[in-house]
């Protein structure tokens, strides 16, 4: 972090940001004061929650959710130090971090290596690198944590999870107005195929996603689905990334790799160019893979369903190339076209600098699998896995013979 790097929610020159940071700090410290300290760790929880309810209001469940979040932060000492220095994350963000760890495979919960890795990843991810940078959304933080879990989960855990979910994967429940919600739990690859089939059918027939889903299921419609799986070619065993699940488990990555019909080089795609207004499939794949979501500050709509905005209009000479294209959902594309905001895109980093009518500005980081910080994470992941394998190998190794432990350096005289 440089001296001039800070999140916009901690901006020293924005009075609203300054006031809200104080609120976050006070809230954090007051919840911390509620946490039983070590001497009181044995105290009966029911009594403790009852006394807290009397002091601060809220149900025991509400109180427990906040205290659980802080207990999780205690497992992540680097993150705790960062939060207590910057007060950039509010209790909602901290609860989301705790929620993302709820279905942690048992093997990882007890794994010190996992917690060390997660702590490193979150400190890197939640440390600003630019002035007035947008704070990652709770959803983006959740996806980051799930990526770490999937990439480090033992394969047997991953397969077990798939079986568990498959055994209870279809349910329906009704609503007061007589409609019924149908919920299906699928693995990442099938979910991606269903999502794209529904989206394509809805676009082609100008109908809602629910209507498209029903038509596809009941009318025996044949539809061709093309899925873009992103995977680093220069990192051994790199995890794949597929919308909407995000980072894939090793098992899903292997399955996706076996299914791939075409391989496209995204390094080359970064500078691809077409004379037409419509981007080619390769250019679209790059821009979606770089942006991850709509680039409007705080918008979480996926890049896949977003429009590809020519930053400099095509009719004004703006080329159709990734350096001049950014993903904007329909709603925010209208705002940009209406002139309420203007942006500059750094093609080297994928960062977008937004400038608003009132003179405010903010820096938005790219979140897709091709964004430089995600690539860095994949590379460091490979190094961590190697370190973990080395630790495991040492643990498994039989006790070494005196000959093997003999010093190999020069004699001490
Ligand atoms: Zn948007």
Features:
mainly alpha, 9% strand, HNH nuclease domain-containing protein, 9 strands, 17 helices, 413 residues, globular
Structure description:
It is a single chain. 49% of the residues lie in helices and 9% in strands. It has 413 residues and is mainly alpha-helical. The chain folds into three domains: 8-153, no CATH class; 163-218, no CATH class; 264-364, no CATH class. It has a three-stranded antiparallel β-sheet with strand order 7-8-9. A two-stranded antiparallel ribbon has the order 1-2. A two-stranded antiparallel sheet has the order 3-4. A hairpin with a 5-residue loop joins β1 and β2. α4 packs parallel to α7 and α7 (112-125) runs antiparallel to α8 (138-152). The longest helix has 25 residues, at 372-396. The radius of gyration is 25 Å and the shape is globular. Residues 294, 296, 299, 301, 328-329, 331-332 line the site of zinc ion (ZN).
Q: On the 0-100 scale, what is the average pLDDT?
A: 89
Tell me the radius of gyration.
25 Å
The helix content, as a percent range, equals 40-55%
- Provide the succession of SSEs: HHHHHHHHHEEHHEEHHHEEHEEEHH
Indicate how many domains the architecture comprises. Answer: 3
What binds here, in terms of ligands, is: zinc ion
Amino-to-carboxy terminus distance: 46 Å
Structural class, judged by helices and strands? mainly alpha
Pick out the low-confidence regions: 156-164, 401-413
Main sheet makeup: 3 strands, antiparallel
């Amino acid at each position: 972090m440089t001296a001039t790097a800070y999140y916009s929610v901690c901006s020293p020159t924005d009075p609203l940001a300054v006031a809200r940071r104080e609120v976050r700090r006070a809230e954090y410290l007051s919840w911390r004061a509620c946490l039983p300290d070590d001497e009181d760790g044995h105290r009966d929880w029911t009594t403790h929650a009852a006394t807290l309810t009397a002091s601060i209001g809220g149900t025991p469940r509400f109180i427990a959710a906040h205290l659980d979040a802080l207990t999780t932060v205690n497992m992540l000492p680097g993150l705790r130090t960062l939060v207590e220095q910057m007060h950039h994350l509010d209790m909602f963000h901290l609860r989301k971090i705790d929620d993302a760890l709820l279905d942690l495979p048992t093997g990882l919960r007890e794994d010190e290596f996992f917690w060390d890795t997660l702590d490193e990843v979150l400190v890197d991810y939640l440390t600003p690198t630019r002035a007035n940078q947008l704070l990652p959304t709770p959803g983006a933080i959740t996806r980051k944590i799930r990526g770490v879990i999937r990439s480090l989960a033992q394969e047997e855990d991953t397969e077990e999870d798939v079986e568990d979910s498959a055994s209870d994967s279809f349910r329906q429940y009704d609503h007061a107005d007589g409609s019924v919600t149908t919920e299906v739990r699928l693995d990442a690859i099938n979910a991606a195929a269903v999502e794209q089939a529904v989206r394509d059918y809805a676009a082609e027939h100008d109908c809602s996603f629910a209507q498209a889903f029903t038509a596809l299921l009941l009318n025996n419609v044949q539809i061709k689905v093309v899925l873009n799986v992103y995977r680093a070619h220069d990192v051994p065993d790199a995890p794949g990334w597929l919308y909407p699940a995000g980072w894939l488990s090793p098992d899903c990555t292997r399955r996706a790799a076996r299914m791939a019909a075409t391989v496209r080089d995204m390094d080359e795609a970064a500078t691809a160019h077409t004379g037409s207004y419509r981007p080619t499939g390769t250019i679209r794949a790059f821009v979606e893979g770089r942006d991850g979501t709509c680039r409007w500050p705080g918008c979480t709509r996926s890049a896949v369903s977003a429009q590809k905005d020519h930053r400099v209009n095509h009719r004004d000479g703006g080329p159709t190339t990734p350096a001049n294209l950014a993903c904007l959902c329909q709603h925010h594309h209208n705002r940009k076209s209406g002139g309420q905001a203007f942006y500059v895109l750094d093609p080297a980093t994928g960062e977008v600098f937004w400038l608003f009518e009132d003179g405010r500005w903010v820096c938005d980081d790219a979140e897709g699998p091709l964004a430089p910080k995600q690539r860095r994470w994949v590379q460091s992941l490979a190094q961590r896995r190697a370190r973990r394998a080395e630790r495991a190998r040492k643990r498994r190794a039989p006790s070494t013979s005196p000959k093997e432990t003999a010093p190999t350096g020069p004699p001490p005289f």
